[in-house]
């Protein structure tokens, strides 16, 4: 009956995006049901859905050996379209609809401060970790420091400074760990760290900076806060790519070079 | 028409992306600086103007609203295609660096938010849902 399996797989693979809608729809339904039945609504359905997505990404990665999680399974390739940068950014922009300009103005200054402070802090933490694990040259420290900012700043810095591919891979891994940790931890600690207002959300976006992490973290915490966090987070990676290989490296080089 | 909403939002996004790339190129880095953020600010400003003049039809608003409602499912699809295996394989260094940045980040939210003073708008919109 291998013919049957092939026809089934082919039928799903012929409409990748539609298969993704059905698959994600089912995952959402399951997650919201679990939220209601198993946690009496205490853990939000979207948080469960995002963690479920990450678990599926792990299974997909183990099973296929690829880099794109469950989207590397051929019949689920549409997940890469649905959750790719194009639709993600389009959906993020759409959340700005209905936000008042006056509100944006009020969150601007703390958001910008958060951006600057946290890029510096992330590079410092990444560089210190790098040093502690024996990567003590300024190039490696700056690259892993960039990775602690986001998984894009790390490789951009590494490429600019000529870091080894091992160090670049580590910097990407650090960035991915950060992004996943932000997705999972945000809804759990939101109240305790004061993430309850648009102002705090803007600061949070500027601090965490990972677009995917903040997008998912805020979605699972309170969808009303999404536009504020998303707005500041989109400046983070560009700012990090600007600062990390230049000022960041120069400072590290002066200290450890 | 629904497509007018997508036209407006898409145009904001393309302009934002262009300006973000322009900023990047001016600063000599191959990264987009704030493209999505610029698009969001544009959408806020333009849609507010159009709504005040009653120039944005219900259908056009529904076109934008659809994508806004698709946000969480899209984020779930995004989560499902992360390279979780490589994050797990990065070893202790990746975990310490990544988690360290996140923990310190959470601690910074309160003090930096306080810089903005107590925002009354913030409280209003939290009450509103």
How many DSSP-defined strands of chain B?
A: 0
Helix content of chain B: over 70%
Mean pLDDT of chain A: 87
Shape of chain A: globular
Number of helices of chain B: 7
* Beta strands of chain A, count: 0
Largest interface: A-B, 119 and 83 residues
Low-confidence stretches of chain A: none
| Shape category of chain B | extended
Strand fraction of chain A = under 5%
- Biggest β-sheet of chain A: count, sense, barrel? none
Radius of gyration of chain B: 20 Å
Number of helices of chain A: 12
Count of folded domains of chain A: 2
Structural class of chain B: mainly alpha
End-to-end C-alpha gap of chain B: 29 Å
Structural class by helix and strand composition of chain A? mainly alpha
Please tell me about this protein's structure.
The complex is a heterodimer of chains A (257) and B (129). Chain A has 12 helices and no strands. In chain A, helix 7 packs antiparallel against helix 12, helix 8 packs antiparallel against helix 9 and helix 8 runs parallel beside helix 12. The termini of chain A are far apart. By secondary structure, chain A is mainly α. By secondary structure, chain B is mainly alpha-helical. Chain B has 2 domains: 81 residues, no CATH class; 33 residues. The C terminus of chain B is likely disordered. Chains A and B meet through helix 2, helix 3, helix 4, helix 5 and helix 6 of A and helix 1, helix 2, helix 3, helix 4 and helix 5 of B. Chain B: Keywords: Membrane, Transmembrane, Transmembrane helix.
């Amino acid at each position: 009956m291998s013919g049957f399996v092939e026809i089934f797989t082919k039928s799903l693979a012929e409409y990748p995006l539609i298969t993704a809608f059905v698959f994600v729809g089912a995952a959402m339904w399951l997650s919201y049901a679990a939220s209601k039945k198993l946690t009496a609504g205490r853990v939000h359905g979207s948080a469960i859905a995002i963690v479920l997505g990450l678990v599926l990404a792990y299974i997909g990665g183990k099973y296929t050996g690829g880099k794109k999680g469950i989207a590397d399974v051929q019949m689920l390739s549409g997940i890469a379209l649905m959750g790719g940068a194009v639709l993600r950014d389009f959906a993020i922009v759409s959340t700005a609809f209905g936000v008042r300009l006056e509100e944006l103005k009020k969150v601007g200054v703390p958001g910008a401060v958060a951006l600057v402070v946290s890029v510096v802090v992330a590079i410092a933490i990444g560089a210190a970790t790098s040093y502690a694990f024996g990567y003590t040259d300024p190039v490696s420290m700056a690259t892993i420091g960039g990775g602690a900012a986001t998984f894009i700043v790390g490789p951009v810095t590494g490429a600019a400074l000529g870091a080894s591919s091992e160090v670049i891979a580590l910097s990407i891994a650090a960035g991915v760990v950060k992004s996943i940790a932000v997705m999972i931890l945000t809804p759990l600690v939101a109240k305790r760290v004061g993430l309850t207002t648009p102002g705090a959300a803007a600061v949070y976006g500027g601090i965490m900076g990972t677009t995917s992490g903040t997008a998912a973290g805020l979605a699972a915490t309170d969808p009303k806060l999404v536009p504020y966090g998303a707005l500041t987070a989109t400046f983070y990676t560009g700012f990090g790519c600007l600062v990390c290989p230049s000022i960041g490296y120069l400072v590290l080089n002066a200290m450890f070079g | 028409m629904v497509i007018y909403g997508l036209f407006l939002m898409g145009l904001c996004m393309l302009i934002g992306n262009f300006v973000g790339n322009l900023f990047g190129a001016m600063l000599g880095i191959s990264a987009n600086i704030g493209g999505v953020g610029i698009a969001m600010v544009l959408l806020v400003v333009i849609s507010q103007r159009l709504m005040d003049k009653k120039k944005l039809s219900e259908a056009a608003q529904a076109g934008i609203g659809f994508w806004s409602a698709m946000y969480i499912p899209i984020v779930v699809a995004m989560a499902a295609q992360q390279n979780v295996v490589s994050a797990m394989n990065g070893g202790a260094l990746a975990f310490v660096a990544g988690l360290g940045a996140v923990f310190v980040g959470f601690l910074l939210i309160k003090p930096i938010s306080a810089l903005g003073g107590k925002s009354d708008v913030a409280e209003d919109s939290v009450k509103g849902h």
